[in-house]
Design a protein that fits this description.
Length: 234
């Protein structure tokens, strides 16, 4: 998805070297909670700030950027016409939380196996930990926590409405690259696992890309022909 979006940016901008930037949220997560909303990514010349609606930056209310489709209360997609919304963190003194920290990312990178049986939201391994699912109370909450911390339109399944979604996922991909480069690493489920595990097996086609030439999971383990990161120090 990110590669296809990047190709479209390159086409529209006429710039074959354009790359989607990443937001190193773990660097911000190492800061005190009350400082995290004041970092450069939220400046007027970047993503803008928080609010219902957002009132600063290029996606502020009153400008051309509008939310057109969102997730309804029962999960269906509904048509809307409103400004972008965000709500940074929970600064209730009895329940404060911040972004994931670098120590949490480092802990995730110690996992040597991508996934484990039962291949679901309770499985061990790298996948669930970088996603932020298990174990619910003790594992580093990485990708999921970023969505929850930004809040507003980053919360529901229509979270791509917020442009910071792509900076978040570009950083998640950077963590994936860092994990792949730290040998030894094992990607499972293997091709010999039951068909019920499709499309997660190594040679299965990525199910979210609906093209005749959609890549396999195996092909996404070396994307250097498309892009590289300036550093993998996560």
């Amino acid at each position: 998805m990110m590669i296809l979006l990047e190709f479209q940016f390159q086409r529209v901008l006429g710039d074959a070297n354009f790359g989607i930037p990443y937001w190193d949220w773990a660097a911000d997560g190492d800061l005190p909670i009350d400082e995290q909303p004041n970092q450069a990514v939220w400046a007027d010349d970047c993503m803008g700030g928080s609010g219902t609606p957002v009132t600063t930056g290029p996606f502020a209310a009153g400008g051309p950027f509008q939310i057109r489709i969102e997730t309804g209360s029962t999960g269906q997609m509904i048509s809307v016409n409103r400004p972008l919304e965000r709500g940074f963190g929970s600064f209730d003194p009895f329940n404060p939380f911040g972004l994931p920290a670098k120590a949490s990312v480092a802990a995730v990178l110690t996992q040597t196996v991508y996934d484990q049986a039962q291949w679901n939201a309770s499985s061990g391994g790298f996948r669930n930990r970088v996603e932020g699912w298990v174990p619910a109370l003790t594992a580093p909450h990485l990708h999921n926590l970023v969505h929850v911390w930004v809040g507003g339109d980053m919360g529901p399944s229509s979270s791509p409405n917020d442009p910071v979604f792509y900076l978040n996922h570009c950083n998640v991909d950077r963590i994936w690259q860092a994990w792949l480069s730290a040998a030894p690493r094992t990607y499972v489920p293997a091709p010999t696992q039951p068909a019920s595990l499709a499309p997660h097996r190594r040679n299965d086609t990525i199910h979210s890309i609906l093209t005749a030439t959609a890549p396999t999971n195996q092909q996404m383990m070396n994307v250097s022909q498309f892009y590289t990161y300036d550093n993998l120090n996560v």
